[in-house]
From TrEMBL:
Protein's name in the database: (apollo) hypothetical protein
Source organism of the structure: Parnassius apollo (Apollo butterfly)
CDD domains per the UniProt record, alphabetical: TRX_Fd_NuoE
GO cellular component: mitochondrion
Keyword flag Transferase: no
Keywords: 2Fe-2S, Iron, Iron-sulfur, Metal-binding
Region (Disordered): 222-256
Pfam families, per the entry: 2Fe-2S_thioredx (PF01257)
Family (UniProt): Belongs to the complex I 24 kDa subunit family.
């Protein structure tokens, strides 16, 4: 009897273990929309627009009518991010001041759009798409390869500060699944070997060629052409015979 109870207990443990293994990762939602001051990111974190970026921002603001300068908010935060790689809260305050809008409007934008990085994500921010089409095309293995090649786990930063690894939802390029997004570039149709070579190229200080790594052009089928294999039929193809006969000409008024 006691053996049987032990057996049931061990089965139960295995079941719990399996269930845990198959549970999706816990999302640190705090990370998405909560700000807590820390030594790296607080209202006194040094930030100043470079002269060139300030000129750029002023030019963008002028594209909008008087009183609608808040429309330049996304562009302003993008400039901050391109300048230093992320958006500290001190920079948000400066942006709010330049655009004459409440700080809350900037916080709302920065916490809603996941493209706005509110912490440093490395010199190269590698994002692996894990939504269903990419998942069934092997994004789990791709993520694993990225973690091994960068020596950095998802959500973390590599020791040398070169790579930050994140997972993202559909990037709108499912036809090329699985894919990585590195900063502004898409690397599509990637295999585990492609991942290692892309990351090694970045380590060597070069930028690997973006786009489909399989060599296919645009969004053409991965297995080659499946339609339009022959020259298209001529005009009139498939019409009833009666419709193909030459239309009788009307006699001209003079010949009547
Ligand atoms: S699911 Fe990955 S790009 Fe759409």
């Amino acid at each position: 009897m006691s053996n049987f109870v032990d057996f049931l207990f061990s089965m139960n443990c295995i079941q719990i273990l399996l269930r845990n293994l198959s549970t999706s990762k816990i999302l640190c939602s705090d990370d998405l929309f909560v700000h807590r001051d820390n030594s790296d990111n607080n209202p006194n974190t040094p930030f100043e627009f470079t002269e060139a970026n300030l000129t750029r921002l002023k030019a963008i603001i002028q594209n909008y009518p008087e009183g609608a300068q808040r429309s330049a908010l996304g562009a302003a935060l993008d400039i901050v991010q391109r300048q230093i790689g992320w958006i500290p809260i001190s920079a948000m305050h400066i942006v709010a001041e330049i655009l004459s809008i409440p700080r809350m409007r900037v916080y709302e934008y920065a916490t809603f759009h996941t493209m706005a990085k509110r912490r440093y994500r490395g010199k190269f921010n590698i994002k692996v798409c894990v939504t269903t089409p990419c998942m069934i095309r092997g994004s789990d293995e791709i993520l694993q390869a990225v973690e091994v090649a960068t020596k950095c786990i998802e959500g973390g930063l590599s020791d040398d500060g070169l790579f930050g690894v994140d997972t993202v939802q559909c990037q709108g390029a499912c036809v090329h699944a699985p894919l990585l997004v590195i900063d502004d570039d898409y690397f599509e149709d990637v295999t585990v070997n492609d991942v290692y070579s892309i990351i090694q190229t970045l380590r060597n200080g070069c930028i690997p060629p973006p786009g489909p790594q399989s060599g296919r052009y645009g969004a053409e089928p991965a297995c080659g052409l499946t339609t339009l294999l022959e020259p298209p039929p001529p005009p009139g193809y498939g019409l009833q015979k009666a419709l193909l006969q030459e239309t009788p000409k009307h006699p001209s008024p003079k010949t009547k």
